[in-house]
Amino acid sequence: MPESKGRKKEPFTPPPSKGERKVAKIGSPSWLAPVMVACFVVGLIYIVIFYIAGSEIPIMNSIGGQANGLVNVGIGFGFIIIGFVLSTKWK
After folding, report:
1. Is residue 9 part of a domain?
2. Alpha-carbon distance 17 to 39, whole Å?
3. Cβ neighbours of residue 38 closer than 8 Å, sequence gap 6 or more
4. CA triplet 82, 86, 88: central angle to 5 degrees?
5. How many domains does the chain have?
6. Are 15 and 33 in contact (CB under 8 A)?
């Protein structure tokens, strides 16, 4: 039986570089950690102030109508949730 001729493969050469490549930045932006901690603190302080003096502060007393307590606690927890969302992006 006749043998087949071998295929001649040229060795792989990578394409020429197109200039400098950008290096991927590892880590989180410098603003992320302070904003995350600030959201945690603002949410906690908002809830504490509402429970201690919420009826004496006109803005907190007028928010939400019948569901005043629920809305104010929701605002505080909203800040805390934003802090947790930002914490997932922190490296």
Report:
1. no
2. 45
3. 83
4. 125
5. 1
6. no
* 8 occurs within a structural domain: no
The answer as to whether 45 is a domain residue is yes
Q: Which residue, among 42, 50, 55, has the nearest Cα to 72 in the 3D structure?
A: 50
Structure tokens at 71: 């809305």
Residue at 7 is within a domain: no
Residue reference for tokens 């019948």: 66
> pLDDT (tens digit, 9 = 90+) per residue, 16-70?
777 777 777 778 899 999 999 999 999 999 999 999 988 788 888 888 888 888 9
Per-residue DSSP letters for 24-49? Answer: PPPS--TTHHHHHHHHHHHHHHHHHH
Say which residue the tokens 């901690």 belong to. 37
pTM of the model: 0.68
DSSP string, 59-74: HHHHTTGGGHHHHHHH
